[in-house]
Amino acid sequence: MSSYSKPDMTSRVQNILPKIVLSPSLFLILIFVYGFILFSAALSFTDSRILPSYDFVGFSNYIKLFGLRHWSIALTNLFIFGALYIVICTCIGLSLAIFLDQKIRGEGFLRPIYLYPMALSFIVTGTAWKWFLDPGIGLEHTMHQLGWESFEFNWIKDRNMAIYTVVIAAVWQTSGFVMSMFLAGLRGIDNQLLKAAQIDGASNFNLYRRIIIPQLRPAFLSAFVILSHLAIKSYDLIVALTNGGPGRATEVPSTFMYSYTFARNQMGIGASSAVIMLLTIASVIVPYLYAELKENKNG
Amino acid sequence: MAFLDIKNVSKSYEKLTVLHDINIAVEEGEFLVLVGPSGCGKSTLLNMIAGLEEITSGSMTIKGQEMNGVHPSKRNIAMVFQSYALYPNMTVADNIAFGLEMHGVPKAERLKAVQDVSGMLQIEPLLDRKPSQLSGGQRQRVAMGRALVRNPDVFLFDEPLSNLDAKLRVDMRTEIKKLHQDLGSTIVYVTHDQIEAMTLSTRIAVMNGGHIQQLGTPKEIYDNPANIFVASFMGSPSMNIFPAIIREIESNLVGVEISIGAGAETKVLKFAPGTRINLQNFKDRKVLLGIRPEAITDPDGADKAAQIIELIDNTVEVTEPAGSDTYVISRLGGQEAVARMRADVIVTPGEKAVFALNMDRVVIFDPQTEERIN
Amino acid sequence: MASITQDTAINTGRITRALIYLFLFLFALYYLLPFGIMVLNSVKPLDEILSGNMVAFPDRWTIEPWLKAWSTAQVGIEPTGLAPYFWNSIKVVIPAVIISTLLGAFNGYILTKWRFKGDTILFGLMLFSCFIPFQIVLIPMARILGITGLAGSTSGLIFVHIVYGIGFTTLYFRNYYKAIPNELIMAAQIDGAGFFRIFYRIMLPVSGPIIVVCVIWQFTNIWNDFLFGASFTDFDSQPMTVALNNLVSSSTGVKEYNVHFAGAIIAALPTLLVYVLAGRYFVRGLMAGSVKG
């Protein structure tokens, strides 16, 4: 015990260097992520309007927020959009992955086609679909030109249906990516297991239902986490596709926050809507990260 | 002071203590093997010698110099890792020379050193290859080359052969031994393989649960195990250990009573003279009797030099011909006992055979403490 | 009929296979159509778009819309075309990608090979930053950029992208470096290499694949960003996506669809190009980052 001596110079330098190199990143993250979150959270309890103010008003912004019809539309839209987006992307992604995994000729050709939309900006996607869905010039117009006079597809102009056009475009953009996640999961399953199940007499349908799909649990989980946070964050696509319209029909929390903070100068309410968004995402992400990191801690 | 002196060294992580008060003095030119099951602390001890893990308490010196807190690169040691840890982006020559380069050795000298070492290990044709283009055995040689070129005070080996196939392992074992004999270097070598420990070492430290169970020459460890752990860990097939009762046959003649076969039949076997037992403590008490398979033979195969051979009629349960020998399994003390007989011995499962027990080689353990008592 | 091959565990009948091919083909169409038709219509004169149907090939091919989108189209108030904004994006993307990748590489290296107490929590904090809705940082960031004079400049945007890219780049490098055996680092330490030397002599030379992944990811994300670009830049410094949105949604005059399409394709070209050249690594990297255990 007594003979324990201090580390030499080299050891000390080598011990401290990693921490020094890590510290700028850590500083940036702590200030610009967590510091800013605290700042926004604080603003949400003040009567800030065009500029931050430090007069605290308790929960009144939140009370106002949840009293706004505008906000309840945004929440309802997010719920509809998020649920459909996650479910449809997962279904399409899983189906494509399963079918593509059947030793398909031309897989190398199809996969990039399914995937390329995710390389595009949402603004580009929005531009393409806005026009494609425009009844005056896009699909409906073309069908009429081709002789199908009764064809009607004017959802993008319809207050009740416009949110579904956002789903169509968003699914178009990300479902190929979900496909590739499931495909990676499928390729990771041990073929011997499948052979064993076949020897046991499992039909193809049962093979997937009982053996393969249950093993894709991690891929399902990752897809859910990624899609749900994309849904809550989605902003660009709505701006480019419908810009929240017609009217407020496709307003979501992210566009709500932006317009209340920067256009309507209601910073306090804008901040409180951002806090609600953060809490929603955190409720999905934090348990996931916790589980992942706990696993890693021992590794 | 010894060449490498480990004094009262302990290691703990927060509340968990993984090494308890380790004391080992390694002399120059010694080949010390640390052997034990996984999790016994042997690799941790090796990493502490290397300076890759801190010492919680105690002291370690190399050539009389305190090593606590000294950076690994300043200890003049070299290490061969289980995974070989060859730098994948560098050629074999660069791998070997990297340590010299880091220590500022001029290029010409480095080239010469690489030449010398690669000649010694017969890896000259590989010098321009990348590690991924080498076989397991070749990687092993390169890893040794990287250690040798440094000309260190102490070589550290961390299970260097465990990733090789069985035949290559035996070849490399011989080669490591030869290198040690030729160079006279000081080596600390970690393995979980007791045969490697026996064949390579000049001394063995058998470890378990963070304690050194026994430190001694291979012969001491094998013939005079300090406790049941050492006895059963060292040797393959491992030592037969079964319950028995100490009896005083007549004054100055002590024996041990064991049950034979599956039934109630018992027999008292005489100990060889010179077997010391504290009769006061153990007379008529239950003990554990240990006897190695090669000390149970057919009567003709028994050691002629033995002082006392006891013959037992017992039922053969299974025979396992192993080529050079035949292992014969019977039941002693209610447990399976392996006997090592000559290859051409004629015994039949289910029938009786005569077993010769070399009583000179018997060891006795206290069933409570598991320590040796004779 | 299904012949038994070595590796196919699942065999399907002829009709099932035909249906599968049909399904896959229809989806290929779904993914190709909107963008494909946009390409087709970007080389059509405007009157053909308005009068004809969108799947028809142009009667008269023209690159006029492309030239116009690039150099003369009205973006905001100036008839500058998208060109200056394209260069703005380039000016932002290149430094932001390089710096955030470098930081991620060091962070990943430290968090796997120089572990210390509490490092998992630090990593968790960095990782969570990938998922935050950026709305939560818009207000304070706008304030800080305003105070430091970086608002409305490409430098400010570069800084923002570096900060919010660190989480992802760290994640990629950490997962990649985790698979590199620690013994390699121990061997190098014994050989006398220090923290930086181990990084550039041993870690960096084997990091090729993950650098590719990280650069593609950061490039795509930063190039495609709209929210930060729209929030923190002015007319002179706005990136391509913001300019494109201005072009497309400007309400003055006739809607020149063909010019909009050409502009959208120009905006998409860099990321598409990167994707075509290195898409395979991209997907592989995303897998490494998200699907495991």
Task: Describe the structure in your own words.
The complex is a heterotrimer of chains A (299), B (374) and C (293). Chain A is mainly alpha-helical and 299 residues long. Chain A has 13 helices and no strands. Chain B is of the alpha+beta class and 374 residues long. In chain B, helix 2 runs parallel beside helix 4. Chain B starts with a strand and ends in a 9-residue tail after the last strand. The model of chain B has no long low-confidence stretch (mean pLDDT 91). Chain C is mainly α. Helices cover 71% and strands 0% of the residues of chain C. At the B-C interface, strand 6 and helix 2 of B face helix 9 and helix 10 of C.
Précis, in short:
With 299 residues, chain A is mainly alpha-helical.
Question: Which tags fit this structure?
Answer:
heterotrimer; A: 299 residues; mainly alpha; MetI-like fold; 13 helices; flat; B: 374 residues; alpha+beta; six-stranded mixed beta sheet; five-stranded antiparallel beta sheet; 24% helix; 34% strand; elongated
Quickly give the structural class of chain A: mainly alpha
Overall pLDDT of chain A: 85
The CATH top-level class label of chain A? Mainly Alpha
How far apart the termini of chain C lie comes to 38 Å
Looking at the structure, the CATH topology of chain A is MetI-like fold
Continuous helix count of chain C: 14
Number of helices, where a helix is a run of at least 4 consecutive DSSP H or I residues of chain A = 13
Name the CATH superfamily assignment of the largest domain in chain C. Answer: MetI-like
Largest sheet of chain C: none
- Name of the CATH architecture of the largest domain in chain C: Orthogonal Bundle
Class of secondary structure makeup of chain C: mainly alpha
Tell me the β content of chain A: under 5%
Shape of chain A: flat
Most extensive interface, residues per chain? A-C, 111 and 98 residues
Order of helices and strands of chain A: HHHHHHHHHHHHH
Strand fraction of chain C equals under 5%
